[in-house]
TrEMBL record:
Protein name: Uncharacterized protein
Domain of life: Bacteria
Pfam families: Gp80
């Protein structure tokens, strides 16, 4: 299964709170802004695991050239809807200076996406009590 989302870069941990179904509400105040930055589309190859999906980017994701410093990038996230999605820290922070680009090579962005189930009863979202 292939699914397309948007990937975003952050200068601090953006996780505000874990949602009832397992994804996260994210603080877009710590998302990179200005300097030519824009969220980029990413196509994931999803492989079913026992408790969800392992998602890896199928192609390179290349952010536009920074026209000003973006600062230290510490986290990446994909958005499912609104400000809700999944986040992963970088193995080490990366400074992005004016004139540089950021490339995420195929397979480098890997996220374990759990099946969304209710935390209290483990049923699918939208079930009746």
């Amino acid at each position: 299964m292939i699914q397309e989302y948007k990937v975003a870069l952050f200068t601090a941990d953006p996780v505000l709170a874990k949602s009832y179904y397992g994804s996260y509400e994210m603080d877009v105040q710590v998302e990179v802004s200005g300097g030519g930055y824009a969220r980029q589309p990413v196509t994931f190859q999803l492989v079913r695991t026992g408790d969800g999906y392992m998602a890896r980017n199928a192609e390179s994701v290349i952010f536009p050239e920074a026209t000003a410093s973006w600062g230290g990038i510490t986290h990446m996230a994909i958005f499912l809807e609104g400000n809700r999605g999944f986040c992963t820290p970088l193995s080490e922070p990366s400074q992005v200076l004016s004139g540089e680009t950021v490339e995420i090579r195929p397979g480098e962005l890997a996220l374990l996406i759990p099946l969304e189930t209710c935390n209290c009863c483990k049923k699918a979202p939208g079930h009746s009590a």
